[in-house]
Amino acid sequence: MFQRSGRWPTPGRLTSALVAAGLAAVVAFAAAPTPPRLGSATTGDHALAEAVRRAAGSDGHRALSVALIENGVVRTAGVGDSGGPAPRPVDASTLFEIGSVGKALTGMVLADMVAKDGLDPRSPVPGLQGSITYEELASHRSGLPRLAGGLGPLIRGATANYTHGNPYAGQDISDVREAANSAELSGRGTVTYSNLGMSVLGHALGERAKLPYTELLKRRVLEPLGMKATTTAPPPAGRAHGYVEAGHEADPWTSDGYAPAGMGAWSTSADLALLVDAMLKGGAPGSDAATPRFTDDETSRIGYGWYTTRTAKGEVTWHNGGTGGFRAYVGFDRAGGRGVVVLGNTDRDVDHVGLRLLGHEGPRPASVNPLLLTITVGLLLAAVVTSWELATRRTPTRNRPQADRLGIVSVTANAALVLWVVWMAGAWGTVPFAVFALVAAATAAGTALHVARWRELPTARQRSRWLSTVVGLVLDAVIVALLLMT
């Protein structure tokens, strides 16, 4: 595999390599993330808790807080713990991020203003390009893209996948309005999910009512339903902490601009049970938002934020939510008189849990993410192969010049960056972390072998080496800076 002169490293260099490998393995295991897994902690209704465990399985979830509403009777249960610096069993009062469930609430604000204030949902939103209507925004038929365009949001969104940061950071109401008015409309009239569109809708309703969106939501929906725990404030005390598959904690998603789309929204299963119970009884303010009006696909229709999907057992009206480290599902079956709330503090979907508790079936999330697994394995191989290829190179080739000091610096920096990225974002719920420790050890050993040759090597064998090394290090620094900023 490697081109060598046939001479093995000296015993001293081999010893250095073994020591480096051992230290790297120790550090790797010390920093190993723990993939989420449901613990034994249980609160509330034990029969419901057992049903939740059977529906969810143990892998991929850290905690689930559930409410089941049957013919006006509410039962709640919690399984697992809240995470964070002081983990505790979750229950019906534990706050979770609910993400896009907030869109259903925004749809209810619109429906309430239509019913009580005479707002025509088919009228154009003032100040918005293309005479886009309130109804088009509420049903994702405006033609607006999913998110604001531009380099900044694109970089934040891409890097947040690796750092588990907040991709919406710093985007305020003016940013949302500007993005909506400068966006190219595409597919208008068909249902195309848009966080941007729902955010524009919420703020437009706030302007019409002469109230900030968060205050409008509180007065129109939350207070009438007695939902005192639901909030759009900064991350509250006593909340659950969210986690990704790799086991790392994820930052909460907050944004004034995207608040009507659910960014920064927190609630409890007990609070959302009040909403579901009122929706089943038809007494919630703006409950007409759940009336299906437009076709989404062959099995689903959409109203104002709420979806209605046909299953083998009947129809379910619902909305789900997902942020960096949380998943939520709120749904109800009118014909069966049953509703459900499922809140989880990992990035593993919970829709199938909610559907099963409702007496319906839905696809379980894949236990393996093929793309993430491929990226993880590829990055691990890149780190160790690059390090050992340079360490054992003796004979230059056209594309691989003989080793020099600048090459050692470049390869070492690249290997360290790759290992850091894969540590943060690897598929550690699928790949045993011992594999990472083994790769880190092998990479450290290879690095130690070529660092041991430092004295015998020239600084640069080619003039172009200086430029390529500097450019490479600058790019590495830029990547690190971008990852640290999100």
Automatic annotation (TrEMBL):
Keywords assigned: Hydrolase, Membrane, Signal, Transmembrane, Transmembrane helix
SUPFAM superfamilies registered for this protein in UniProt: beta-lactamase/transpeptidase-like
Position of the signal peptide: 1-30
Statement: the UniProt record of this protein carries the keyword Glycosyltransferase: no
Domain of life per record: Bacteria
Gene3D superfamilies (UniProt xref): DD-peptidase/beta-lactamase superfamily
Sequence ranges assigned to domain Beta-lactamase-related in this UniProt record: 50-351
Transmembrane segment boundaries: 371-391, 403-425, 431-454, 466-485
GO MF term set: hydrolase activity
Keyword Oxidoreductase: no
Pfam families registered for this protein in UniProt: Beta-lactamase
InterPro entries: AmpC-like (IPR050491), Beta-lactam-related (IPR001466), Beta-lactam/transpept-like (IPR012338)
Its EC number(s): 3.-.-.-
Official protein name in the record: Serine hydrolase domain-containing protein
Taxonomic source organism: Nonomuraea roseola
